Amino acid sequence: MTETAIEAAALSMRFGRRRRPALDGCAFRLPAGSVCAVVGPNGAGKSTLLSLAAGLLRPTEGTVTVLGQAPATARERLAYVAQDKPLHPQLTVADTLRLGHELNPRRWDAAVAERIVAEGDLDPAAKVRTLSGGQRTRVALALALGKRPELLLLDEPMADLDPLARHQLMAALMADAAEHGTTVVMSSHVVAELDGACDHLLLLGAGRVRLAGPLDELLAAHTLVTGRADASLAAHTVVESRTTGRQITALVRPEGPLGDDWQTTAPSLEELVLAHLRAPEAPALRLDDAREAAV
Amino acid sequence: MTAVTLETSTAAAPSRGPRGLLWAMLRLHCSALWFWALLMAVGVGTLLWAYGPGADAAWAEYRKVGCGGTAADLGCDFTVPAYSRYDTAVGIGAGILGLVPFLAAAWAGGALIGRELESGTAQLAWTQSVSPARWLAAKLAVPAALLTAGSLVLTLLHRMLWSSDGVLRMAMTSREWHHGITFQANGTLATAYALLGLAVGVLVGLLQRRTLPGLAIATAAQMALMAVTVALRPHLWPVETLTDKDEYPPFIGMVVGDGALTSTGARIEDPICVDNAKCLAEHDIVGFYRDYHPSSHFWPLQLVETGIVLAVAGLAVLAAFRLLNRRTGAAV
C-alpha cells in the first residue's frame, strides 16, 4: 500500500443541531502523490471536507488524518487556499509573501512564490485591496506554494480566473506538483476545469461519498450504453438512464457482459460526473481501498 | 525582470527586526499601533505640560489673587482661569486612561479578532505553520505588552502630578482621590481595566466571528463588567465609621453610607426629623453614623479591585483559548 495523503473514516460534520449535516459518514482514502478532484453540487460538503483536512474545523464525529497525522499536527506540511482567497487587504503583495516567510520559517521557498507572482505581472508594491479577483487568486496560490506543502488543499481555486490565467496557473500548479510529488486536492463544480489534470476523483453528494478512487478505474467501471428502449439492463447497476423515443441511453456499471443489444462507449469525466449529479439516488462506488470497517 | 526586483525587496528585509508572529502582528495592525503611539503622545504631552508650565501658571495666578498661604483659606475656593486649564489638562490625561479599556475592547473585538475571522485571514494564518493557539497567544501578548507599557507610563505621570498639586487641588476642591477616573488613573486599575478590555474583546470577537458585532458587543460587555466592578468598589475593603450624637459626622473620603442610630445601636434610615425632638424620640434616634473609606484605604481598595479585574480578564483569556481549541481541534 502506498503512503496515504488523506484518510477519512466515518467523518461527519454538523454545524448546529437543527441543520442537516454538512458531511455525513464520509470514508475515503487518497494515496500520496495523487491529484484529486473533489466535485459535487453546491452544498455537497466539499468546502467542509477541505476545512477539516486543513485542521480548521474539528469533526463532529469520525476522524480524518492527513499525511498520517492529525490535521492539527500536520499544519506545517499542508497548504490550504480557501474559496474566497482571504488575504490581508492592507498588505502589499511583497508583504503578503513576507508574511508567508515569517509564518513558515522552516519551509518557505521565496523563489517559488515570487515566480508565481511575477508571472502574473503583479506589482510587488501594490496593496492587496487593489488587486482583481484573479490577481488575488494568484497571490493566494503563491502563498500556498511558497510553503512547499506536501499536501495542497484548494477550494474552488480557479473560479475567479480568466481562461488564459486559469490554464497558465493550472499548468504551473501541475508542474510544481509533479516536480515535488505534492498531493493536490481541489474542489470544483466546473468539471471541465479538472479534466486532464486529475488522476483521482472524489464525488460528494449531500455530505456523502458517491464516487471515490483513481479516475481511470472509475471510468473503466462505467459504460455508456445505447440500445432499444425495451432491452433489459437488470443485470447491471444503472446509474442513470434516459429514454428518447424508442431508444435508451444509460450510464451503467456492468456486472458482466452487456450483450450485443447494446452499443457501448467509454464515458468521459464530465459524462460520469453529470450522470451521478443528475441521479442523486444512484448507489455509491468506492475503488479507493479504504478500510471498510470504518464506514 | 519583476522577479528580480521582488527578490531584492523581500529577501533582504527579514534578516533584521522582529520575526515571525511578532512581525505579523506589528505589520498587520500597524495603523492601530500608530493610533496607540499618537494617543500616548497626547496623554504624555498633556500631563507633562500640566506638571510643568500648567501648574506654574496656575500657582502664579493663584498667588496673584492673594491666596496660597494656607490650604484652608476659605476666601480662596474659587477657580482661576489658569487653574481650570491645568485641571482640563489633567482631566485629558486621566480621561485617556479611562477611555483606553473601551478602545481596547472595541478594537480587539472588531479589528483584532472579529475581522480576521470574518474575512478568513485567521484561517489563512492557521494553515501556515502557526497553530491557532499560538496565533491567539500573539494576538493577546503583543497588545497586552503595549497596553501595559502605555497605561503604566500615563499612570506614573498622573501620580506624579497628584503628589505635587495637593495644595492647589485642595484649595480648588476640584478632584478627590476616590473620584472614578482619578481613582483608576492613580493606581494599577487603569492598566488592569485596559487588559480586561483586551481579553473581553478577544473573547467576544471569537464568539461573534464578525467585525461590527464583535466591536459593539465587546464594548457593551466591557461597560457592563465595569459597571459591576465600580458598583462593588466601596465594598471591597472594610469601611470606617464615624458617629455623632446631634448631627451627621463630617463628610470625608469615599462615603459608603449613612443614617441614624437608635438607642439599641441599630442603624435605621433617617426619618428626616432635623431638630424636631418629638420626632427623634418617636424613632428612638440617639445619633447618626457615616461609613466611609479614608484616603489610607486607597491602596487596599485599589489592589483588591485590580485582583478581581485581572482574575476576570484571566478567565476571559482561558475561555478564549478553550473555545478556539474546541472549534479547531488543535489538541487532537
TrEMBL record, chain A:
<keyword id="KW-0813">Transport</keyword>
<dbReference type="InterPro" id="IPR017871">
    <property type="entry name" value="ABC_transporter-like_CS"/>
</dbReference>
<keyword id="KW-0067">ATP-binding</keyword>
<dbReference type="InterPro" id="IPR003439">
    <property type="entry name" value="ABC_transporter-like_ATP-bd"/>
</dbReference>
<dbReference type="InterPro" id="IPR003593">
    <property type="entry name" value="AAA+_ATPase"/>
</dbReference>
<dbReference type="GO" id="GO:0005524">
    <property type="term" value="F:ATP binding"/>
</dbReference>
<keyword id="KW-0547">Nucleotide-binding</keyword>
<dbReference type="Pfam" id="PF00005">
    <property type="entry name" value="ABC_tran"/>
</dbReference>
<feature type="domain" description="ABC transporter">
    <location>
        <begin position="6"/>
        <end position="231"/>
    </location>
</feature>
<dbReference type="InterPro" id="IPR027417">
    <property type="entry name" value="P-loop_NTPase"/>
</dbReference>
<dbReference type="InterPro" id="IPR051782">
    <property type="entry name" value="ABC_Transporter_VariousFunc"/>
</dbReference>
<dbReference type="GO" id="GO:0016887">
    <property type="term" value="F:ATP hydrolysis activity"/>
</dbReference>
<protein>
    <submittedName>
        <fullName>ABC transporter ATP-binding protein</fullName>
    </submittedName>
</protein>
From TrEMBL, chain B:
<feature type="transmembrane region" description="Helical">
    <location>
        <begin position="181"/>
        <end position="207"/>
    </location>
</feature>
<feature type="transmembrane region" description="Helical">
    <location>
        <begin position="298"/>
        <end position="321"/>
    </location>
</feature>
<feature type="transmembrane region" description="Helical">
    <location>
        <begin position="214"/>
        <end position="232"/>
    </location>
</feature>
<keyword id="KW-1133">Transmembrane helix</keyword>
<protein>
    <submittedName>
        <fullName>ABC transporter</fullName>
    </submittedName>
</protein>
<feature type="transmembrane region" description="Helical">
    <location>
        <begin position="89"/>
        <end position="114"/>
    </location>
</feature>
<keyword id="KW-0472">Membrane</keyword>
<feature type="transmembrane region" description="Helical">
    <location>
        <begin position="135"/>
        <end position="161"/>
    </location>
</feature>
<feature type="transmembrane region" description="Helical">
    <location>
        <begin position="33"/>
        <end position="52"/>
    </location>
</feature>
<keyword id="KW-0812">Transmembrane</keyword>
